[in-house]
Amino acid sequence: MEKLPSTIGKIINQEITNEMRQSYLDYAMSVIVSRALPDVRDGLKPVHRRILFVMKELGLNHTAKYRKSAAIIGDTLARYHPHGDSSVYDAMVRLAQDFSLRYPLVDGQGNFGSIDNDPAAAYRYTEARLTTLSEELLEALDKDTVDFQDNYDGTKKEPKVLPAKIPNLLLNGAMGIAVGMATNIPPHNLGEICEALTFLIDNPKSNNSDLTKIIKGPDFPTGGIIYNKKEINNAYETGRGSILMRGRAEIVLEGKYHQIIISEIPYTVCKSSMVEKIADLVHEKKIDGIRDIRDESDKDGMRVVIDLKADSQPGKILNQLYEFTDLQKTFHMNILALVDGIEPRTLSLIEVLNEFLKFRQQVITRRTQFELDRARERFHILEGLAKALDHIDAVIKIIRASKDRETAKTNLMKRFEFSDLQATAILEMRLQALVNLEANKIKDELEEKKKLIKELMAILKDPKRILTIIKNELAITNEKFADKRRTQVIASGIADFSEEDLIKDEEVIISLSSDGYIKRVKADVFRVQNRGGKGVSGGAPEEGDETSSQLFFASSHDILLFFSNFGKIYQNRAYEVPEGSRTARGKAILNIFNLGTNEKINSVLRIDSKDKNNQKYLILTTKSGIIKKTDLSYYANIKGRGIIAIKLKGEDELVSVKISSGEDDLILITKLGNAIRFKENKIKPMGRNSSGTKGIRLAKSDSVVAFDAFSKDKKKVLMISQLGFAKQTDLKEYRLQNRGGAGSKASKVNAKTGLISAALVYSQEEDLIITSVKGQVIRLKIINVPVLKRTSQGVRVLKLAEGDMISSAVVL
Q1: What's the predicted TM-score (pTM) here?
Q2: Domain span at 77
Q3: Labelling 360: which of 32, 199, 592, 707 has CA 20 to 30 A away?
Q4: Given 66, 89, 123, 125, which residue is catalytic?
């Protein structure tokens, strides 16, 4: 009778803490090794590896007929993976989704889900087979390239890892949560990975920074944009890091309205959930300016259209979408994988590639050894066959004299010293091998095998030749499967990415009324007319509200400085000014800036975004003839509440602000038609809080209405009076004087012309836009305004309605 183990029936005392610790560690390691983490060698978790292995066993290569997913799932569960069918099917579905995997490993037919988080159809409805790329993972599996292990019940053998000709861990990435650790590896571009591996083979002492010149960053299947190459490189160096992703969005103008078109979204984002979130934000009034959202995506690509209101600011709305929705998302990279199938380790980029190369060297070595063993075996058999053919008569005689197969084999082995393998092959030889042609084929094959054995032995003896084989295979793989990068990499961080990159740079006209309404229109909305025309409506004021307005030209990317009657300065971009139609009143500037009680904007300055060399000083002039010069750098950091630009005394007001180079000429013009011209160097730079100095001495009833700073290339002064009279005058007629003088006559002012309302200096024959108090606007060629003497009154350029008068002018 068999003796039972001494422990049977006995109670063993055990500390419960030790037992729980050991049991938990066993459980944790089981989850880590057998379920949650991918292997660095083939980039697969056990469930994915088993699915692909079953599909290979079923003969489902990329040219085979599709097979029901139910059959694949059933065989996987029955043979290798005794877990829930839904978890196995979900794993297979992910392998087939082109929005989840950069390079899908399963070719699915039927409903395999969508980027809108729609679930796949039940596995009884869908079908699948392997993709061409997944066959690269399984190639040479039958050539003893990897170790096999018993399945869960010991009835079959399964591979511990797939031979993997491609570095799947980086190509398709991985996500998984184990016990006390998690992995999150982004997908990459196959062409870049193959190139980096080739470079690493040629330069084994290279480092991560060398490789990141080739591998630009993750390449997500959903495209999008990623930022900050420095952070990306740091993540590759340490194996951990955050990568900022943004969807691809474009601001376009459709008719009168702007649209935001989203064509790509960040990786792992559900499109329908993102669209719902946008709708919720609009409903909750956290985002203002959106009038409609439509998902126009189809089989040809993604397209989410967001229609904006006419007075909206597209750049700001897009930034709000980035801030409040998953249109901007962070990918937290953590390259954690199993090394040698058992050790979980956080790896840098170069470590992942080196581990793959080490594995591929092992695979090539084992494959070569297998082929060498098969070649030697075949060579041995061919030697026996050749020897038999040389003594064919004796061989036939022995076979005929033997009573059975075993006796014949024994006699042949004894007579000719054949091995068991050779004797068996001779007995199985067909009679057709006796003809001369077949005999020659055996001898040719023998010679061929001899050369092959020599070649295979040479490969095994030379590690460099193995690396050359890997390089050649990578080149073939690259040629077959490489495609263009989908995800754009921006080298700078998001802080360096401004919304103006999304705004078209175009010429615009900014209109600001004295009662605080502002708008932006395209310059071409005002067509050129002849001198003396009536013009067109440019936005009439409210009934009974006759207010003058400023009109000036800008590029949509220019910085605008807004000056208030309190002497404060505010800042905005031209494209941030709400766009309106030619006849629209505009938007209250109180909704743009945080103005104080009784504070209003009465002067606006454009900073040319393309000309920074000639923009050094800010020169301010007031109604009472005070002028002040301040270094432009003092206004580099203007917060939302504004900063002090000049101290105003009494009821004095700002009239005009200009940018100067430090070497310009200055001219001040009064409403009674006087003007003074002097050198800019006559004014010393002052601080922001100063009041300025006297620029022109005024008569009691006079005040400054216009001011300009100009360089030597300027040629003429344009003068416009309140009742629509205008003229050009050569600058030569304005002699240089000392600052603070009374100036000289610049225009004849009378009841017919009205007071001077606008003046400016220019150099080219450009277009002129004039606007009136009641909103009439005319655009005409400056060449149509006659060049007259300084003391003349000018000619009529705009027919005004009764009670109307000119308020401002701008040269394009």
Answers
A1: 0.65
A2: 44-163
A3: 32
A4: 125
